[in-house]
Fold this protein.
Amino acid sequence: MLLALVAERPQHGYELMAELEALFGPRYTPSPGSIYPALAALDAEGLIEAREDTGKKIFTVTGIGREALVRREQMLVTLEARTGVRLSAGALEPALNRFLARARAVASEVDHLDAERVIEEAGDRIEALAKEKDR
């Protein structure tokens, strides 16, 4: 989760703690004792790098970190589906992956024809949104 947040934009530790608290609070309240060791581990793995900026360490994702996020995409999708937390708000791909994860989890419990109808209706509505935007 920290890697995904740093990939969205460079941040310092307290920004990341605030963002995690906003995403998961009140169920989870991050602390410096949990966040900074995790950031140090990501840095040691070469997934992020820290630079000093006005006395604060600003963390940015590295190329290796972006590759790791691609490999861990399904893990993030599962976490998002389980917690209801949404990352990458500006991209449609994570929402589609969350949808697939949720649909697959209940696929054996629903009538497949009903599910197909709902999926087709959703596709029609998304296409209508694109047409509205073009006007």
